């Protein structure tokens, strides 16, 4: 069994697999180590949404490139990932929210995003199933969409294997050490030991713990979020509906006809606890029915929890750390699935060349985390 690689990646979610895929395509000897199964962390628990409606140039450009990659995945992988441009609809129930949407819409349109603000009467025509009581309007981008996380992971997994990359599941990393030669020794819980001159921390909600193994204190904290999915009904192309009210939520209709969604709890739940609550099971349907009344007779069939990997400013942390050869691509703040393809491609490029395909200072490891925050979380 090979023990020496060009790059070792810790984490088998979309960030780790996408980066490994693009590295393997460049004939790099790459090993992915996953503590459990592929998608165990956040990717396999996300609700499938993909959007470019963000508030900063870096996030918008990155997400637009990801969408281009999602669009080409069926050809790239040889199987469908159920990509569908069903759009994102951000609702404004007060003038302050409308003003905020209009402000960020300026930079979105400047960067070529097909987004506009729709007044209440226009939303009633476009989306007649939406309850417009107290609604002022909302922004809609038809090029945003959704894909199946498991089919995307399958494509990257098979592509890594095809390009001679290696993946070890149920291989929890318990120590990372620097050798006298300047390489890294990566030790797993099953006592397997691997070596590489470069290591990427793509451990999602466990990024802080992995960083601590090499002496880094990364400002990434896991935060529990719950989700639910309904039984299928007739597919009506309901976009991702985003309600930013204090008791709002966000959900989308999958191509299967099912509705999948979640909301951010009023009181944050930090840590790795992935319990599901009765409060969410009763509250999530209420919030969905308030926006789409026809869901009243639709049954919830499953609920679960997952982790957002949060940073102080709501943006990812990427790049080479203060320790040479040790990289981080984490702190996705709930945007890992939608950013994943582009970040994987960019991260591979950065590891190999030391440069970025575009300006990524906004996500730099050494940035001022108090300087600004993502407005459209």
**How much of the polypeptide forms β-strand, as a percent range?**
15-25%
In whole angstroms, the N-to-C terminal distance is 44 Å
Largest sheet: 8 strands, mixed
Class by SSE composition: alpha/beta
What is the 3D form? globular
Helix share bin: 25-40%
Q: How many beta-strand runs?
A: 19
- Low-confidence stretches are none
| Count of helical stretches | 9
Give me the Rg, rounded: 21 Å
- Strand adjacency order, main sheet: 5-6-4-14-15-16-13-17
Can you write the helix and strand succession as a string? EHEEHHEHEHEEHEEEEEHEEEEHEEEH
How would you state the average pLDDT, rounded?
96
Summarize the structure.
This protein is α/β, with parallel strands linked by helices and 377 residues long. 28% of the residues lie in helices and 24% in strands. Strand 15 (250-253) and strand 16 form a beta hairpin.
């Amino acid at each position: 069994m090979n023990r020496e690689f060009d790059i070792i990646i810790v984490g088998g979610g979309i960030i780790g697999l996408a980066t490994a895929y693009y590295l393997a395509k460049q004939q790099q000897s790459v090993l992915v180590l996953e503590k459990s199964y592929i998608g165990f962390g956040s990717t396999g628990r996300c609700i499938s949404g993909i959007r470019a409606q963000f508030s900063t140039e870096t996030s918008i450009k990155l997400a637009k490139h990801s969408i281009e990659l999602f669009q080409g995945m069926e050809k790239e992988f040889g199987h469908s990932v159920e990509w569908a441009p069903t759009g994102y609809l951000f609702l404004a129930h007060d003038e302050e929210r409308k003003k905020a949407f209009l402000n960020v819409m300026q930079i979105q349109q400047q960067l070529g995003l097909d987004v506009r603000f729709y007044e209440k009467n226009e939303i009633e025509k476009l989306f007649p199933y939406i309850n417009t009581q107290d609604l002022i309007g909302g922004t809609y981008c038809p090029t945003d969409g959704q894909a199946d996380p498991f089919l995307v992971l399958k494509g990257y997994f098979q592509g890594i294997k095809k390009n001679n990359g290696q993946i070890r599941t149920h291989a929890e990393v318990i120590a990372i050490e620097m050798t006298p030669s300047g390489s890294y020794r990566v030790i797993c819980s099953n006592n397997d030991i691997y070596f590489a001159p470069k290591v990427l921390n793509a451990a999602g909600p466990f990024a802080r713990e992995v960083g601590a193994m090499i002496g880094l204190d990364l400002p990434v904290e896991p935060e529990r979020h719950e989700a639910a999915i309904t039984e299928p009904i007739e597919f009506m192309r309901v976009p991702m509906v985003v309600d930013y009210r204090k008791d709002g939520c966000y959900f989308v209709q999958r191509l299967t006809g099912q509705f999948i969604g979640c909301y951010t709890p009023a009181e944050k739940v930090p840590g790795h606890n992935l319990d599901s609550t009765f409060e969410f099971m009763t509250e999530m349907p209420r919030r969905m029915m308030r926006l789409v009344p026809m869901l009243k007779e639709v049954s919830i069939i499953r609920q679960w929890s997952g982790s957002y990997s949060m940073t102080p400013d709501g943006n990812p942390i990427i790049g080479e750390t203060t320790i040479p050869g040790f990289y981080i691509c984490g702190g996705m703040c709930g945007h890992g699935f939608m950013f994943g393809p582009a970040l994987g491609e960019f991260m591979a490029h950065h590891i190999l060349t030391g440069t970025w395909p575009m300006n990524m200072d906004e996500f730099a490891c050494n940035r001022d985390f108090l300087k600004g925050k993502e407005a459209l979380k």
